[in-house]
Amino acid sequence: MIELESQENKVVDSLGRPLRDLRISVTDKCNFRCTYCMPAELFGPDYEFLPKEKLLSFEEITRLVQIFSRLGVEKIRLTGGEPLMRKNLDSLVGMIKQVEGIDDIAMTTNGSLLSEKVNALKQAGLKRVTVSLDSLDVGRFGQLNGRGYQVEDILHGIEVAAAAGLDVKVNMVVQRGINDQDILPMAKYFFEKGHTLRFIEFMDVGNSNGWKLDQVLPSRSILEKIHEEMPLEPVEPNYYGEVASRYRYKGTDKEIGFISSVTQAFCSTCTRARISAEGHLYLCLFASGGVDLRTPLREGKTDEEMLEMIRKIWEKREDRYSEIRLSNTTGLDRKKVEMSHIGG
Ligand code: SAM
Ligand code: SF4
Ligand code: SF4
């Protein structure tokens, strides 16, 4: 009976896409100042981050997860800002783990605080971690992260996470002329270490990174570059809506992935909703605005009322920004939410 009820609650949007993944930004703060995400000139010492009372509490986040899970969400990804800047994140993971219907809790992090925090997170129920790393070159990495953080510390965090039993992936955002020389060293290093590396095309998210199409190195070029030295073969997708195109190094079971948000849009299977740190719901990475869920939560709306509200929002969803960008690269210069706000 309960099973039947939960099936009935599953929701699809106006383009037939189910709601399956929820990305929750747990903080808008970050210890890095990546040039393409939170450039130091714009996120300086006077920048006002959200005060604590505006952030969703762990109880509020868990309540939303319960509601979203009834609508079909099975996977949760914690992100930020830098999620590990939020105190006691392992408690939140433990709370989410208890929610019926959630079978996967993952986190995207810059990795700088991973080694000291990952064991508690794993014990609490975290399954997977994606570490963002754009270069193995000490100087370039320090420059890209805007704060001189050391590659070595991130690599150490990755190994501690893997040793703790987490599934670890590494994401590299490639910008033409900035870090494309790091593609092969990164591929070789993570092949040796046995961690899947995924290349992400530089996207026009937010308004602060001065994005231009010619800064995008298409996945196809990256793939060809690697294939010349380390032959690859395609791997079938694991599930509906998988964003990375997967390849295997021939003759091995080691994989590599490509997230081609610019050159091969995957909007038609996009099942992801996003909640910002202050509790706004975004239906697309490139949305201009979100819907405030925190106010109705705090005003005492019931779970049923919240569920109906979210259902109606998802049912109307028609976002497919990357597909539109592909067919028309002009006329897309609208104001967009910042990546550090909703977490990628
Ligand atoms: N701080 C965490 C981190 O860096 O992993 C989580 C939040 S960060 C906004 C999530 C991901 O978005 C990172 O992998 C980052 O590299 C990626 N990202 C940020 N701006 C981007 C852009 N313009 N194009 C592509 N990826 C971007
Ligand atoms: Fe921070 Fe992640 Fe944005 Fe870099 S990409 S500034 S680590 S939130
Ligand atoms: Fe999903 Fe929007 Fe990205 Fe398309 S552009 S894949 S709809 S987040």
Automatic annotation (TrEMBL):
Catalysed reactions, as listed in the record: GTP + AH2 + S-adenosyl-L-methionine = (8S)-3',8-cyclo-7,8-dihydroguanosine 5'-triphosphate + 5'-deoxyadenosine + L-methionine + A + H(+)
InterPro entries (UniProt xref): Aldolase_TIM, Elp3/MiaA/NifB-like_rSAM, MoaA, MoaA-like, MoaA_NifB_PqqE_Fe-S-bd_CS, MoaA_twitch, MoCo_biosynth_MoaA/MoaC, rSAM
Gene for this chain: moaA
Cofactor note: Binds 2 [4Fe-4S] clusters. Binds 1 [4Fe-4S] cluster coordinated with 3 cysteines and an exchangeable S-adenosyl-L-methionine and 1 [4Fe-4S] cluster coordinated with 3 cysteines and the GTP-derived substrate.
Alphabetical list of CDD domains matching this protein: Radical_SAM, Twitch_MoaA
Listed name of the protein: GTP 3',8-cyclase
Source organism phylogeny: Bacteria, Bacillati, Bacillota, Bacilli, Bacillales
Keyword GTP-binding (UniProt): yes
Annotated [4Fe-4S] cluster 1 binding sites: C30, C34, C37
Functional summary from the UniProt entry: Catalyzes the cyclization of GTP to (8S)-3',8-cyclo-7,8-dihydroguanosine 5'-triphosphate.
Family: Belongs to the radical SAM superfamily. MoaA family.
Protein EC: 4.1.99.22
